[in-house]
Structures are given as C-alpha cells and as structure tokens.
Predict the structure.
Amino acid sequence: MKQVVIDQYECIGCGACVELCPDIFAFNDDENKAYVVTPEGGDQACIDEAIASCPASCISEEEI
C-alpha cells in the first residue's frame, strides 16, 4: 500500500498540487506550504500529475 507524502522542508508553497488535486492536498496559509489531507491517495492520474508538476520535487508516494 502506498501513501502520498510532501517533504515539508522542500515545499516552496507554489500551490500547484492543491490546484490539481484539491481532494488530496490543501494549503497551510500560516506556513505557506502544502500538505496532504488524504494520505491514502485517490485519483492516481491526479497524484501522478501533481508529482510531475511540483517544481520542488517534494511530493512522493511511499510504501507503508
């Protein structure tokens, strides 16, 4: 089973993942960074697009 994760240290707060997959990602205005709201995932095509679109390359899927 895989889990979607964002490396908070690497996140630059561009918001691309939130725009692409609002069911998976959200934005923390206080920290100016995105975070995962649905770690178990969802629409795989959407997740793949978010991973590919992230300019900081900080989104990944890890085996749990």
